[in-house]
Amino acid sequence: MQVLAVTPEIYPLIKTGGLADVTGALPIALARQGIATKTLVPGFPQVLAAVAPSVPLLSYPDLHGGKASVFAAKASGLDLLILDAPHLFERAGGPYGDASGMDWPDNWRRFAALGFVGADIAEGAIPAFVPDLVHVHDWQAALTLAYMRYGKAADTPSVITVHNLAFQGRFGAGIFAELGLPVAAMSLDGVEYYGGVGYLKAGLQAAWAITTVSPTYAVEIGTPEFGMGLDGLIAQRAEDLTGIVNGIDVDIWDPETDGQLKATYSAKTLKARAANRKAVEERFGLVHDGSPLFCVVSRLTWQKGLDVMAGVLDELVASGMRLAVLGSGDAALEGALLAAAARHSGRVGVVIGYDEGLSHLMQGGCDAILIPSRFEPCGLTQLYGLRYGCVPIVARTGGLADTVIDANEAALAAGVATGFQFEPESGHALVHAVKRAIAAHEAPKAWATIQRQGMKADLSWDRSAAKYADLYRSLVARRTA
């Protein structure tokens, strides 16, 4: 089977979050299922720097205001189609905004172009590659499916994966005339959304199937609390919606071989983690004592619930923990955490920014990782924590609820616990969960059992890829029936 994937990000070429990890790992896992994937990705500077240009497969004299072309490339085991459109994608800053974090005002145009080209390829614009199915990711790629629906590829099976429903790609109605879609598309069952144009909404409307990144999140987004205004549409399409938990790249995230660690280890050699622990303590200016070392590796945003954690941080420190925080985001939240580090010198350390190597070291050296998200479609940091014996302490929501087994009395007695869960948005519940973890940490054998139980979990992409493969095959069979 030949699949066209369309995504704004793909690891290791361009990454702002977990979306890139998924789109980089899934094609490789699908290949083991007999499915070949070519991924269309914008020609951001980071992407062009990582690949060798080749003869264009497609050329556009005027793609939303400038010349553009598509060429094939290979990188890190991935088959890529690069949309080289300098007027749209070759800019300083991030993929979606400038260096100050402000969104590019023409994002509607940039990702309409990506969708237009995706639909072109779906229609057979590259004769040597006519996909059997098209799989798009998030709002930036979603318009692909609208162009397909109103074009020549309406009968090509399609899947859209929602990585986070909060990001929808909503724009004013004034852009519609420049999208090149028929007038009929500006309707309730098309791209129209609350009087404007909704890219994600358009994809959800047009896709043959919808997936999201955990079973619990698939249920949550059909409710007003988590549906972000799209719960009605999600509920309408409930029969076409599947929740499939993300995997992780177990070759990159492997404590036995990870070159980012001071000392590698396995479930049988957990004591070797001490060298990593010491390195984390030194990097964050923390005292060296026997108290449990917790960490946070996260974007510092409202969604992640870190304002809730900041509000009870004095109480958490008083309970006996130390904390290392790596992340960036909301300026007020950054300030609150830095202030806490100043108040609790040697007990709380904060590094503003993101450092991939440091994140590996923290997973390999800290005792537990805190993830107090208000909502979390899947989450990857808790999976990394499980893999590295860094016990996850998570809010009971989305993929966090699906992947961590709470260390309640029954689970501890059965030896199946892998972490600690608590009610979202509750500082009191978070403090209680931390105190439970500290109490468990005081019994080294019981704590090691929790670590080892998490480390033996199958976190690879193989099981998830098999579910995607089954979905793909069912859709292609429907087309040919």
Account of the protein in words:
Helix 4 crosses helix 5, helix 5 crosses helix 6 and helix 14 crosses helix 18. With about 475 residues, the protein is of the alpha/beta class. It has 2 domains: about 270 residues, Rossmann fold; about 190 residues, Rossmann fold, CATH 3.40.50.2000. The chain contains 19 helices and 18 strands. Keywords: Glycogen biosynthesis, Glycosyltransferase, Transferase. This is Glycogen synthase.
Could you list some keywords that capture this structure?
38% helix; transferase; Rossmann fold; alpha-1,4-glucan glucosyltransferase (ADP-glucose donor) activity; 19 helices; 481 residues; glycosyltransferase; six-stranded parallel β-sheet; nine-stranded mixed β-sheet; alpha/beta
Please provide a brief summary of the model.
The chain is of the alpha/beta class and 481 residues long.
Structural class: alpha/beta
State the oligomer: single chain
Bin the strand percentage.
Answer: 15-25%
Largest sheet: 9 strands, mixed
Enzyme class: transferase
Pathway: Glycan biosynthesis; glycogen biosynthesis
Keywords: Glycogen biosynthesis, Glycosyltransferase, Transferase
Protein name: Glycogen synthase
Element layout with pairings:
Elements: E1 2-6, H1 18-31, E2 36-42, H2 45-50, E3 58-60, E4 68-75, E5 78-84, H3 86-89, H4 107-122, E6 133-137, H5 138-149, E7 158-162, E8 170-171, E9 192-193, E10 196-198, H6 199-206, E11 209-212, H7 215-220, H8 231-236, E12 241-243, H9 273-284, E13 293-300, H10 306-311, H11 313-318, E14 322-329, H12 331-343, E15 348-352, H13 356-365, E16 368-371, H14 381-388, E17 391-395, H15 398-403, H16 409-414, E18 420-422, H17 427-441, H18 444-455, H19 462-480
Helix pairs in contact: 4-5, 5-6, 9-13, 14-18
